[in-house]
What we know:
Blueprint: H1 20-36, H2 39-53, E1 60-65, H3 71-82, E2 87-93, H4 96-103, E3 112-116, E4 131-135, H5 143-156, E5 160-166, H6 170-179, H7 187-199, H8 203-212, E6 217-223, E7 227-233
Parallel strand pairs: 1-2, 1-4, 2-3, 4-5
Antiparallel strand pairs: 5-7, 6-7
Helix pairs in contact: 2-3, 5-8, 6-7
Amino acid sequence: MNPRVRLRTSEKLDDLSLSGEPLTHTLSSLKWINSVLGNHTQLSNAVVQYCKKNKNKKRIHIVDLGCGGGDCIFYISKKLKQKDVEVSFTGIDGNPSSILFASEKIPHSQNINFVVADILDKNFKIPDCDLLISSHFIYHFDNEGLVDFLKKTQRKKIKHIIFSELYRSRMAYYLFKNMSYLLPISNMAKKDGLTAIQRAFSINELREIIKQSSSKKFKINKKPFFRMVAKIEP
């Protein structure tokens, strides 16, 4: 692995026609990874912090880009309910089978909606929302594409963005490569995980991309297990 160069190879999960047991097993694996390795906690902490500061709004609408099986939405929804914050969610993913998987697991009486759409398509329209979040997704953009997307959020007048992502690291790659056989996750998740680490932005790369987008202000915090959380005001 060359940590200085982003890999351009696609993952098996990027196949938007993927369905059946390979997909559902991998979505369940990603839920386990998000829970055990801290992504649920890190992302929800950032979302709760924003929502508590803006609790005077009647209802905060949150859009999750690349929501997969919806596990991040369900976790964050539970945490916000504990804080008596009224929110609604829209989860977006390009795979109809992933959206079906997520829709079948929506808790009763929750304000959650799932939509099939290709976020990487230049004609993709960002829904109206107060907060835009993503987890393990933005590395699917190339540098120019992410700059353009952030500029699109400015035109849309999105108030706040939170990205929870891996950052590219040789150590992360080899630790995952040598230890993943111990993890109760699918073979697809293991292979895609190595690819994702190599496709991830470095912290400096993401910082430069946000600067190029002319966002008002932003902050990137390094988190445990080779993760970063970026908070952006477009």
